[in-house]
Fold each of these.
Amino acid sequence: MRTVARGIAIALAVALAACGGASSTGTNSSNSYQGKTIQLGAILSITGAGGVYGPSSQKGMDLAVEKINGSGGVNGAKISLDTKDDASDKAQSAQVAQTLIQQGQLLALLGPTLSNSAVAVHPLAESFKIPILAVSTTGIHIVPDCNYPKTDPCKYVFRDSLGEETAIPTNIKVYSEAKHPKTGVLMVANDDKFSSDGGKIVQNTVGSYGIQLLDTVQFSKTTADFATPVTKAVQKKPDVIFITSLGGIPAKIMIEARKQGFTGQFLGGNGFNTAVVSKQAGDAGKGAESGSAWYINNTFASNAGFVQAYRAKYSADPDQFAAQGYAAILILADAAKRANLTFSDTPGDRTKLRDAMESVNIDTPLGRFQFTSNHDVKQTIWVIQMDGNGGFTLVKSVTPS
Amino acid sequence: MTQQVLNAIFIGSIYALFAVGYTLVFGVLDVLNLAHSAVFMLGAVVTYSLVALHGMPFLPAAVIAILVCGLLGLLIEFVALRPLRRRNAPPISALISTIGLALIFVAIVEQATSGSLFSWLWQDGANSVRFPTGTVPNPTFHVAGLTIEGTKLGILVISVVLMLVLGYVMRFTQVGRALRAVAENRRAATLLGINVDRIFASTLFVSSALGGLAGLLFGLALSDISPYIGRDQVELKGLAVIVLGGMGSIPGAVLGGYLLGLIEVFAFVRFGSNIEAGVAFAALFLVLVLRPQGLFGARLRERL
């Protein structure tokens, strides 16, 4: 009886895997991974400052793993994902990565959540020749130059998170072309890589659109009361306040600036793109614009299906980080499917997986997804604005050139 | 600049309120209660929980939260301090055990999401939230180019009144005298018939209630409630304040709070944030070099 049941199960799994293969994007692998396990490790910030983002990434990844395993796996192989918390701490992040790598069986890593930690983790993965896919790091010098200031490309480092270098200029361009602002003040947290990178990008961009930067107000991400830096910015009476910072800080700045009578525009980057920030900002955030990798109300199938499945599983709306986490698993699954993995030679499999990742071209909740030759994101950018009620509306979509 | 002075006075009163609780415990028990910042955080979190998750009006929620924080103070005393005192452990042990409690309190909140064990208390994990709009009316006045918020003004008044009351109690009441006697000499106080254990417990209760109050006012006025508001934003500053004012001195903590607020804001406006903390701590260093006992620690033996 038992063998019969097992036989049926195997037959079903094979059939499902075949279906999965047929509906994939052209490359149909004859190789069966039946009974094998594709082991992945994720380093995420579940607690600490990055705890705003990490849990979302984790939920997106778990959902994708569940979906793929539930529909026959990758050529029959199951995906197993081992997620570890780095507490948003750079040293701890490197420590966790080291532990995961030393387990020896993992084919690829995901993460870490923060750019600040990626600086420590990515070079480590590169030196061990294990592919690592960043799912939320948007700072500069993540790809391809993970060993910055050394500029030789890191071969094993990828990211599916839209970099601030693309998102911020696109956002400024779209807003400038519509509203022609003349002056701006930049508010930037100077003790965090993500934030200060964003600040540099704003400073380098505004000139091209005729915006004069009246002042750059730097503050610490541990500032308790934002009244002081906001007063400094608002007193310059700018048309636009640019905010490049993390977590709840953009919301706090918006609330404070509106209290102090600022009526201009807020522009920012990925720091704006979570419902949590939009909700915290509330009315004060209404109209605040940012370039985003993802927009919840997109109706194309790969997003609608994701949003629906996410709501069903977690009874909550997904955010950009969940979408990027989910997309990351799809990307690795697609690459693994085409990589002719042996499951006996881990170093060889890692390199095969890396090679296959370069030619990923699939539909994800983010839209059609490919990597550039630098292993960076090539996708449509969605310029969105806060709606004042914890959500977002689409301003414009910008397709990659 | 005037606006910035107002900003400084406001943040100074939060620092002061937080530091008064800190210094009270140090003055009486001779230990630093490093769980104070976690109680500060819980003051905000419990109030938020009652208002946003359980639909209670703000005032009763605040009163309950303050009482809960007071009870947490008792928990600190009974779990982290008293057992060690019984064994004559050195003060450093008590310091470490309070750090442990602080970590537990923070972890409970940061791990709480909807559907988890503590979802009745908190559902936002590591996120920062704020009270629903309109929880407390916040008329904002614009006078002569200055922005003055109702809530911040209210907080200033509450802080000053509470600190005056506390000062009065310490100086002129039976309880205050008992507290000071215990601070002076535990054994002598016992011989005089003072129940030292009860004094310790009530000190922790009052100190933690004050910390909780400071936390909920912080959350209300700065639209920032998260598991980390205590640890990231007031813990070290609170320590700096009580060192500046003189360890164990209540007027010192008050003055130190306002002074630190002013120095920080001045440094920020004048030099920018890169050295804001640097200037504040340089001032602290200077005070320690010139007056090692702190501003109000003149007679070290007579604390409080």
Amino acid sequence: MRDRKNGKLDRLKIDSLYFYNIGPVDITLCRSESIGITGPSGAGKTLFLRAVADIDDHSGNLFLDGKESREFQPNIWRREVSMLPSESSWWFDSVGEHFNNINKIWLEMLGFDYTVLKWNVSRLSSGERQRLALLRLLSNNPKVLLLDEPTANLDIKNALKVEKILTIYIVETESSMIWAGHDIEQLKRISERQFIIKKGVLQAMPEASFF
Amino acid sequence: MHIITLSPFDLSMASILLILLSLLSIQMKLGLARQIIVAGIRTTVQLLFIGFVLKALFAHSEPWLLILIACIMLLAAGREVMTRQKRKFTGWWSMGVGTTTMSISSFSITLFALTLIIKNEPWYEPRYAIPLLGMILGNTMTGIAIGLDRLTQTVWEKRMMIEARLMLGQTWTQAIGDIRRESIRSGLIPILNSMAVAGIVSLPGMMTGQILAGSPPMEAVKYQILIMFLIAGGTGLGTMAAVWMGSRRMFDERQRLSLNRLKKI
């Protein structure tokens, strides 16, 4: 581990990662840092997140707090480096059965109250599913968040709320976040660095493309 | 009590039913006439053949001969399990999962029944060993085939849900637990159903055969109860083992769902 800006420690280190036809990817995220990933549909944003979550095969090394991913039990790695898929899955009947514990403040920030836990999953709208899936993920207290279009089904008001909660979360818990999405303005709001995946290469986004 | 032996003429009389059926099929344009005749001929030839094999086997009570027959039966059953799968495993596993688990459960339960319950001398006497193994194997085969088919199909359909559970930090056994339980249950339902209706709705074939062949009903019933328990044990253990082994195969060493281990349809 080396000191970086503000003397913060590295959280996640991605070292010459290859997956499918994409690579090598070398990115280091320090604590409380977030980056944005964009690129055309089908370019491999989701595949990148899946490789980092170790849910897909890949080569190269991933380090969490200096410890290599293969030194973790697979499920422990995924609990710490946790991915939110763009479409959420629910397997029990009621919402509450999917949660171990729930943060009441976040629940209210996203426009729910405790009664949502008794709701039937089939009653949820796609936006409600997406917000609740995010809360379900955060209730595991992951150290790295891998978010695949986390606000795709939300209106602008709820999207801003989600951005706010996530920004608070990574500051309070010193977590890192990789946010994949299409909205460049949003990526600039939530992250200091942005990257683009195109034709099998992940590279820092050129300034020119903002204008 | 003596046994009324059936002459070839008696069987020909019964076969008139099949001919009648195929004539009706032609009349009603069911397109089954050929199939009915072929099935009738297959039944006759295959059963006559096994009759000769058993006759020869009973004359020479050799353990190696018994093992040979048992292995042939096992391989045929293993192949049958494989062909009944919609989504087969790739490579050796397509036949391996069913055959391995079937051999463990059927052979051990048959051996258990022969040595500890029936206690015939010698234990490999084919008159007991072959029919017992055949009944246990046949039913275990059905349970395993249903259980594995259910497993692989459900995993395929619910891959998003399984991966979502993995992403939340669940282990592979937690992520597939519900599917595994459901698969085992569906494999066990046929034998549980037939145990539930035995004697009321249906008279099991083995018992019927024994009674027709002149055994006292109570003896036939006792054997039937024994067989039912053995079949339930064999089917249950075999299905559990096959579903466990199959579900383990769906994940790699990093507990990633590996659907590339199933053949494409």
